[in-house]
Amino acid sequence: MGRRRRADGIAAVFCSDLRRSVETAEIAFATGDIPVLLDWRLRECDFGALNGSPGAQLSAGRTQHVDRPYPGGESHRQAVRRVAGLLADLPSRWDGRRVMLIGHLATYRALEHVVHSRPVEDVVAAEFTWCPEGWEYRLG
């Protein structure tokens, strides 16, 4: 990712502060002048008591938690709203500049909701397909 994206004109990388994302950012952007900024709002949905459960288990019940929080956690709508808060803040300093986000499925869902106006119910219900090249979105 770093080799592919370092020369893309990226002004900054915003990264979830969860270990997996931080390690990805460190590997990809350890050398270079692009600042990597950690932001808790890019975390995955908080599955509460189910944190650490197998992905297949979480995926199977995900539509039941669009608006109903996971026990001790948050709902998918709350997670999308949290990430959307970061997206709303980006123009205050980075307007017109290219940034990269390194996050989780909640980040993807929020981008689909905010940029493409897809209902949260639809993005949660949709099967996720990984894109090795990443995704590109234009805010505003």
From TrEMBL:
Gene3D superfamilies in the cross-refs: Phosphoglycerate mutase-like
InterPro entries: His_Pase_superF_clade-1, His_PPase_superfam
Pfam families: His_Phos_1
Name of protein: Probable phosphoglycerate mutase
